Amino acid sequence: MNVGAGPARSAGGVKRTKRPRANEEVALQITSMADVFTILLVFLIKSFSVSSISVSIGKDTQLPTAVGGQEQVEALRVEIHASAVLMEGEPVISLSNFVPSDPASIAPDGTIPELVSQMQKQRQRQQILAAAGNEVSARAEKDSKLLVMADKRVPYRLLKQVLASASVQDFTDFKLVVVQPE
Question: So where are the chain's domains?
Answer without folding.
Answer: 76-176
